[in-house]
């Protein structure tokens, strides 16, 4: 082979290299695109999947139509780092439906403090094998009462905030959807707000964990502010010492009795506090005034199984006491370092 032929083949081989291929491939069809937004536009109002090559991306996209699956070629190797659309999220979803499998969302901030990996505004959403980390919110949902959100084998870590005079952000916050299901998932190292806040009429949390031991200025682990039916079962809860509000692990109807809560099943969970949390707390703090099914739970020594109270916003004195407890908790945590 002559030197000239060799020189020609080298650049041709480079052009054929998978590393230089466009990273977002649409199925069916197999056409690849340079940006996530172009891949979403290519599917339009149809049904399709976007296969995402390993890499770190600043991309984001708005899905206005269609039913789209966003899939990493290899789970947890497609990393979305910092890219935000519409000042909201990496994925802003208001089509006919979406699923997310194997993606990582990290380092997301916006001026209003509500940056999320996923902003779901309309349609059903399924999330699996994904990680949301070091951002203001993991998933933020709207109020589609005809749709459901399902999360399986996901990790939410280093999320939430309650500062800058803005409304709090949470690891997972869903508005008035029909239901929220969380299975085999982990919540940890919160940075403010709640770990799960859901206004959906039905909640289903199973086989998951809430580890608040390294949390900072956090509140509840599961907040059902409007009430809910469903179940919370076979899940582990650890309450940390740096709390803004430590009154309950699971709190029901703190903002009103909009949804029915009678018969909510809370069973076979484990709940305790870290040693430096020296205050009493309730595993279930119920303000709904309706009967629950609570059985088979294992709780720590300072944790009361259930506490009931009247629904309504906290009083001024309660807010002051909560804030003082928060600062005392932070001081204890620092002295223990």
How would you briefly describe this protein structure?
Helix content is 12%, strand content 40%. It is globular.
Which percent range fits the helix content? 10-25%
* Beta-strand percentage range: 35-45%
Helical stretch tally = 3
CATH topology: Pectate Lyase C-like
Q: How is the biggest beta sheet arranged?
A: 12 strands, mixed
User: What sort of overall outline do the alpha carbons produce when their principal axes are compared?
Assistant: globular
Which structural category do the helix and sheet elements fall into? mainly beta
CATH architecture name: 3 Solenoid
**Low-confidence runs of at least 5 consecutive residues:** 1-19
Measured between the Cα atoms of the first and last residue, the distance is 68 Å
Query: C-alpha Rg, in Å?
Result: 22 Å
Strand order of the largest sheet: 2-1-3-6-9-12-15-18-21-24-27-30
Quantity of strands, as a count: 32
Briefly, what CATH class?
Mainly Beta
Query: How many domain units?
Result: 1
What does this structure look like?
This protein has 337 residues and is mainly beta. It has one domain: Pectate Lyase C-like (3 Solenoid). Helix content is 12%, strand content 40%. It is built from 3 helices and 32 strands. The longest helix has 20 residues.
Features:
337 residues, mainly beta, Pectate Lyase C-like, 12-stranded mixed sheet, 10-stranded parallel sheet, 3 helices, 32 strands, globular, disordered N terminus
Topology:
Elements lengths: L2 H14 L7 E4 L3 E3 L2 H8 L3 E6 L2 E3 L3 E3 L3 E6 L5 E4 L7 E5 L3 E5 L1 E4 L9 E5 L4 E4 L2 E5 L1 E5 L6 E5 L2 E5 L12 E3 L4 E5 L2 E3 L7 E3 L3 E5 L2 E3 L10 E3 L4 E5 L2 E4 L8 E5 L12 E3 L2 E4 L7 E6 L6 E3 L2 E2 L3 E6 L7 H20 L2
Parallel strand pairs: 3-6, 4-7, 5-8, 6-9, 7-10, 8-11, 9-12, 10-13, 11-14, 12-15, 13-16, 14-17, 15-18, 16-19, 17-20, 18-21, 19-22, 20-23, 21-24, 22-25, 23-26, 24-27, 25-28, 26-29, 27-30, 28-31, 29-32
Antiparallel strand pairs: 1-2, 1-3
């Amino acid at each position: 082979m002559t030197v000239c032929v060799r020189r020609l083949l080298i650049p041709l081989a480079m052009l054929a290299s998978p590393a230089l291929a466009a990273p977002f491939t649409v199925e069916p069809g197999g056409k690849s695109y340079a940006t996530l937004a172009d891949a979403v536009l290519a599917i339009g109002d149809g049904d399709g999947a976007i296969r995402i090559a390993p890499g770190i991306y600043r991309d984001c996209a708005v899905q206005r139509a269609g039913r789209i699956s966003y899939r990493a070629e290899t789970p947890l190797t497609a990393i979305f780092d910092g890219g935000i659309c519409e000042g909201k999220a990496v994925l802003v979803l208001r089509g006919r439906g979406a699923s997310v499998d194997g993606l990582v969302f990290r380092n997301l901030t916006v001026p209003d403090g509500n940056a999320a990996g996923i902003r779901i505004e309309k349609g059903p959403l399924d999330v699996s094998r994904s990680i949301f980390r070091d951002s203001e919110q993991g998933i933020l949902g709207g109020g589609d009462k005809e749709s459901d959100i399902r999360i399986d084998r996901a990790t939410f870590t280093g999320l939430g905030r309650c500062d800058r005079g803005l409304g709090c952000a949470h690891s997972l916050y869903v508005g008035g959807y029909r239901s929220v299901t969380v299975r085999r998932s982990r919540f940890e190292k919160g940075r403010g707000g709640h770990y799960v806040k859901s206004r959906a009429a039905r909640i289903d949390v199973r086989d998951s964990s809430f580890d608040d031991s390294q949390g900072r200025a956090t509140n509840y682990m599961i907040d059902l502010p409007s009430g809910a039916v469903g179940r919370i079962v076979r899940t582990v809860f650890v309450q940390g010492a740096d709390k803004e509000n430590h009154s309950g692990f699971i709190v029901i109807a703190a903002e009103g009795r909009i949804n029915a809560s009678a018969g909510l099943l809370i069973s076979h969970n484990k709940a305790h506090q870290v040693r430096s949390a020296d205050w009493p707390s309730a595993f279930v703090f119920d303000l709904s005034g309706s009967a629950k099914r609570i059985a088979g739970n294992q709780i720590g020594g300072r944790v009361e199984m259930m506490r009931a109270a009247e629904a309504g916003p906290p009083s001024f004195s309660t807010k002051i006491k909560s804030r003082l407890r928060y600062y005392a908790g932070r001081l204890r945590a620092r002295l223990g370092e």
